[in-house]
Every structure is written in structure tokens, then in C-alpha cells.
Amino acid sequence: MGIRFNHSNSFITEHEYKYMENQIRIAHKMLHDRTAQGSEFTGWLDLSLHFDHDEYHRLLMKAEEIRNNADYLIVIGIGGSYLGARAVIEALNHSFYNLIEDDKRSAPKILFAGNNLSGKYLSDLFEIIKDKEVYVNVISKSGTTTEPAIAFRFFKKFMEDKYGKEGAKKRIIATTDKSRGSLKELANINGYETFVIPDDIGGRYSVLTPVGLLPIAVSNINTDEILKGAFQAEEIYTNENLFDNECYMYAASRQILNRKGKDIEILTNYEPSLSFVSEWWKQLYGESEGKDKKGIYPASVNFTTDLHSMGQWIQDGKRNIFETNLIIKELNKDLTIGYEDMDLDKLNYLSGKTVSYVNEKAFEGTLEAHVKGDVPNLVIELDRLDEYNMGSLIYFFEKACAISGYIQGINPFDQPGVEMYKKNMFKLLGKPE
Ligand SMILES: O=P(O)(O)OC[C@H]1O[C@](O)(CO)[C@@H](O)[C@@H]1O
Fold this sequence. Notes:
Elements: E1 3-9, H1 14-33, H2 53-69, E2 72-76, H3 83-92, E3 109-113, H4 119-129, E4 134-140, H5 146-171, E5 172-176, H6 182-190, E6 193-196, H7 210-218, H8 223-236, H9 246-259, E7 264-269, H10 275-289, E8 297-302, H11 311-316, E9 321-330, H12 355-372, E10 377-384, H13 387-408, H14 419-429
Parallel strand pairs: 2-3, 2-4, 4-5, 5-6, 7-8, 7-9, 9-10
Antiparallel strand pairs: 1-10
Helix pairs in contact: 1-9, 1-13, 2-7, 3-7, 3-10, 8-13, 9-13, 10-13
The structure holds 6-O-phosphono-beta-D-fructofuranose.
């Protein structure tokens, strides 16, 4: 397993973890026995046992077809219906994936839509793709979410104008519920190929279903390895003993810190390509735990960039925060700093050192400073940033979230709070009942 969890700078004592052992055991039982609230949405827990291999095979064929025929894949979805795919695609691909020249790329550019209500964004997007070969993957579990539905209405027309009804039909793929919802109905009537979001997996837990797997596979990332890493994590993190389960140690650490007044968890990274992993993580934890006037507020920063903005607050502001550092031990690309005779920039003391080495020292120095500033720091370290570890990390965060939520005393699998804005918006828009 390529993931390690370190709590040596958490200010949590051994006995505090010991006091949590029983609660963890109970939460583990609630989750695994499927006796607790929300258990109807725990299909992700043992996905390997009921993974649909035939559908997955069909998905890989479709991904290949898209790779061979598209300049652009447009992924339409919001929240859990796009964040996971975007997180993995950005983490594992070239930092400038969409800017790689056409003759040097083996996969289409991937752009996202339906995750906002900006007419400017959509207009700009159509300007970019109007003369290109396009495939569309529209993703919505409910099939009724306003943002992707509006975007898809425009894309459906765009595709039909460009390719005709028959051509559009081949290039539009819908990922949705197996039988319900407007998107499923639209797909049936128009003859789009569909992939299923299982009933027992909610949006924010769906990255390892066709929701994430199709766009990720299109970008030429090895999804077999992602699944291998996730399924391995499924096995490793089944141990109900807190001290033998790093995933549970993370969940317990969060809850211990929260009870000590730490209301905000800041996920940090030192790699720009991980910034959308943080966005995915924020939805996972925010929608799962922010309930009944309780919950840790999940925030994120991208270091070292944000050390020059939020660094001040973290070092010196109100002490109601803790940090969880997502660290990559070894990267497959790096640069070595050169020597210059004049040394006008005074950097010769670093000549011969890699940029990663400097980054590593920035992390170590920051951790030491923030700990000195009374900020508990947790560390999740990945050996490498690769498919296998990304699969394991996804499962690690998903399971820790469920366990942490049960300990907190909420249902980690519903999201009643997000309905309020929708109700108001529909009222203002005059949506018929
Ligand atoms: O896949 P859907 O049903 O369009 O939902 C998208 C997102 O919207 C929410 O339902 C919140 O409104 C999230 O839970 C979900 O990830």
C-alpha cells in the first residue's frame, strides 16, 4: 500500500486515541453491518464485490472510440458528477494536458460544463469547440439537476446542428440512474448510449463508477490500476482496530481535534496538479458532515502558492484550525537548479539541487512553523502520484469520511441542506410544481 498516515504533530496523545477505540469499532460495525442511517448508499464500501465487469468493458471500448474520434470531450455535470473525474485527470496527467499540441496527443482535450450557471462560460466554450470534433458525456444521477440540464439543452442542440440527429446520437453518452429521471428518459428517447450510476452510490462517492471512470479512461489514464488500488484499499482498511487501520486513525484524529475546538480542516498540497483533489475532498467532507449545526468545515490551500496569501492566517490567526497535508514522496518529473557565474539572483547555494528538494524543505519548514504556531498537523503521504495510489487514496478518504460522520452522529450519506437554495431559486424562476 502506497499511503502512510502520520499524526506525530497532531498534539493528540496516545490515550486520546485509546478513548476513541470503542467509538471507532461501533462506527465500523454500523457501516459494515449496514444497520445505520444512510446504509442504502454504501455500495462504494465493497464495490469490488459487485463491480459490473461487462459494463466496464463496454466503457473502455467507448473511451477508445472517443479517443479515436474526438478533439474534445465535454463532461457535463456538477458536484460529485464531475469533481472526481476532474481531480483524477488533473492529478495524473500532464500539468498542461489540454495545451499539448494536437499531433502529439493520444487523447482528446477534456473540458467541463454544467457546473455553473454562467452564460459567458458556455458562450466561450462554444466558441472554442465550434469547428472541432466533439463528444459529450452528460452525467447526472438524479437526472434533474438544473446546472447540467441547462448546459445539456445547449449541447444537444449544438451536437444536432453539427452532426444531425443520428450523428449526435453516436457522440452523446449519458451517465445516469439505471431507470429513473429526465436524463434517462431523454437518453432512451434519443437513443444515447448510457452508463449506470448504481442506486446505492451517491454522487460524491461515485468517482469509481462510470461517472469518473469514463472521462478518466478517455484521457488515457489506466483505470484498471485505479481500481486495483481502490480494491486493495478496500481490503486493507477493513480492520476494525483503530491502531491497525490508518484510515480510521485519520477519521479519529479529525473527530478528536474537532472536539477540542478545531472547527476547520485545511487540506494542503504542494503540487498544483492536486488542487482539484482538494475540491473533490471538500465536497465529500462538506456534504457528508455539515449537518444538524455540526461538522468540520473543509477548506483547502495550494502550497507554496498560498503560503504567500493564506500562510499568514494559518500561522497567526484564530486557533480553530488543523491542517491535513497531502504529500507526494516521489514525483516522476523534476528539474535540477543550475549554477551561474554571476549569481545575481543569489541562488547558487541551491545549484545541483532539484526543485522537488526545495519544495520538500518548504513543506518541512512550513510544518514546523505551523506546529510551533499551535496548528495540529496531520500528514497523508503517497509514495508516488500514480493510478494505483490515487485509487487507494480515493477509498481512504471515502471510508474515513463515513466513519468520521458516524462518530460525529450524523448521516454521512444524505444532503438535505442543498435543497434550500434550489427551492428558493425555483420559486424566483417560477418553476411549475
Ligand atoms: O448527479 P446529480 O443528481 O446531477 O447531482 C449533482 C450534485 O448535486 C447534489 O445533489 C447537490 O445538489 C450533489 O449531492 C451531487 O453531487
